[in-house]
Description:
about 160 residues
Amino acid sequence: MSVAVICPGSFDPITLGHLDVFERASRRFDRVVIAVLGNPRKEGLFTVEERMELITTETAHLDNIEVDRFHGLLVDFCADRGIGIVCKGLRGGSDFEYEQQMAQMNQRIGDLETLFVSTSPAHGYLSSSLVKEVARAGGRFEGTVPPAVEAALRARFA
């Protein structure tokens, strides 16, 4: 029996913390779907297509990872693809409070189970928002994102 898991998020942009969670999930599950949220009410720094391309580039060495996009309810996306497990990385307590509510709602309306993965201590402080803020201000953000993302951020804020 093949077990699939989904790692959903906006990933605008992906950080080394995201990649850590993806790699760890890929070692534990047969199939990992990284689902990039497309929210028409929210304009991201990168388009959904650009984010998907960056994720695909940075996860190319993992043969059991797929990158897809979704909008609407995660439970519907998962039901259409036969996925019953969500994998989310947690940096700390504030992440848990928000993610626990989402997990409980997803379980109630879609029978989705959520597994929380504690972020590696080396990446526990990282967030896409923080990286974008530092990059936008011209600060040093080396070592927080993969090389392709670093290049994309530098080009975007040049």
